[in-house]
């Protein structure tokens, strides 16, 4: 039986690995969820850079 294969660049692969690591880190995910909540509630400050 022949297996299908997908080729991606090393950069794409590394990015996928980083995304998976973030999704598996509950502390980081809680920070992201809280940040999204703050944005929706207008609890943000404008930065002038």
Explain this structure:
There is one protein chain. With 49 residues, the protein is mostly helical. Helix content is 61%, strand content 0%. The protein has 2 helices and no strands. It has helices at residues 10-24, 26-40. The protein is elongated and about 55 Å long. The protein starts with 9 loop residues before the first helix and ends in a 9-residue tail after the last helix.
Features:
49 residues, mainly alpha, 2 helices, 0% strand, elongated
List the helices and strands and how they pair.
Elements: H1 10-24, H2 26-40
In short:
The chain is built from 2 helices and no strands.
**What's the story with the biggest beta sheet?**
none
What's the count of strands? 0
CA-atom Rg in angstroms:
18 Å
Element pattern in H and E = HH
Q: What sort of overall outline do the alpha carbons produce when their principal axes are compared?
A: elongated
Tally the helices: what do you get?
2
Strand content: under 5%
- Mean pLDDT, as a whole number? 95
Uncertain regions spanning at least 5 consecutive residues: none
Helix content: 55-70%
Indicate the structural class: mainly alpha
> How far apart are the termini?
58 Å
């Amino acid at each position: 039986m022949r297996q299908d294969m997908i080729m991606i660049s090393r950069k794409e692969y590394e990015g996928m690995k980083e995304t998976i690591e973030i999704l598996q880190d509950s502390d980081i995910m809680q920070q992201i969820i809280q940040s999204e909540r703050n944005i929706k509630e207008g609890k943000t400050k404008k930065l002038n850079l």
